[in-house]
Amino acid sequence: MKLIVNRQERVIENDAPTVQALVSDQMESERSLAIAVNGDIVPKQDWASRTLQEGDEVDIVRAVSGGDHPVDDALEIAGVRFGSRLFPGTGKYPDHASMAASLDAAGTELVTVAIRFMDLDGGSNGQAGILDSLDLSRYRLLPNTAGAYTVEDAVKMARLARAATGTNWIKLEVIGDAATLWPDVTGTIEATKILVDEGFVVLPYTSPDLVAAIRLEEAGAATVMPLASPIGSGQGVQDWVSIKRIIDAITVPVVVDAGIGTASDAALAMELGADAVLVNTAVARADDPVRMARAMRLGTEAGRLAYLAGRMPRSAVAQASSPTAGVPLTTGAGGSRIE
């Protein structure tokens, strides 16, 4: 029998294989498997009884890698409160140990994970399962739809992610340009509407476009996540004026996502009034990821404190910080001598 498994033709010797038979070798070691047959999610309790037919398309995925906080300044997203406003990713680290140590140093409570096809022939293709390396008593998972270029693919990945991880939270990405990984705003809005109707908590990645942010909020997004600069570029906050417009215009939390390169970038985003920052590559690709994670934590906290404190007004001229009266001068203004 021929099946299409993870978009590749696969010949199965059994004439009436079950879903469970396809993944029997991985069931004990993988906690996050999710399976769809012809686009429909198959619940785990039905794997043993669900038989497959000639030509069925089967998608088998799993989740992969992609402190103390002030209680009086918690961030709330979809009814869930977070003390930390730093959301790290789990991808690109040298190994799972450095990832785990970096997440600990970041003091985070929400981490992103990717959903990828599983290699049924035993190879990992660099994508080992991630859940066994995460302390799920400490971290809420935020699966993403990274790699989706169409609304259909993004929605499908979100459904698989929910089945694989057990969470209805999703970081929605619909990419419009492969070179810059710039988001397809129209597709993102459409996918947001579909997923919200299906009960997802949608955190969409978008461009720093004010109208797009408004439309995403109207579509039911739990946050709006404008990019600081292209994903993984480390270029920092390039268009802070547009991000500030979004912050001032919408009521759902604004999470600055993509392009942050170092702690000062995170601080700037938070000083603008962003509610949180999402950072992956800047930490994972640092020479010392654990130290950079701590720096990002401090930068995020410092930026938030500065925003809450309220910066001083800008002045076009100098303003003396010490009293000018009673100074024992020997010369007057312009250098003239006082007799």
Alpha-beta content class: alpha/beta
Give me the strand/helix succession: EEHEEEEEEHEEHEEEHEHEHEHEHH
CATH topology label: TIM Barrel
Architecture (CATH level 2) name: Alpha-Beta Barrel
Topology, number of strands? 17
Span of the ends, CA to CA:
107 Å
Protein architecture, described:
- This protein has helices at 19-22, 96-106, 151-165, 185-197, 210-219, 240-249, 263-271, 281-284, 289-309; strands spanning 2-5, 8-11, 34-37, 40-41, 57-65, 75-77, 80-82, 86-88, 110-117, 140-143, 169-172, 175-177, 182-183, 201-206, 225-226, 255-257, 276-279.
- It is built from nine helices and 17 strands.
- Strands 1, 2, 3, 4, 5, 9 and 10 form a seven-stranded mixed β-sheet that branches. Strands 8-17-16 form a three-stranded parallel β-sheet.
- The protein has one domain: TIM Barrel.
- The protein is α/β, with parallel strands linked by helices.
- Strand 1 and strand 2 (8-11) form a beta hairpin.
- It is elongated, with a radius of gyration of 25 Å.
- Helix 7 (263-271) runs parallel beside helix 9 (289-309).
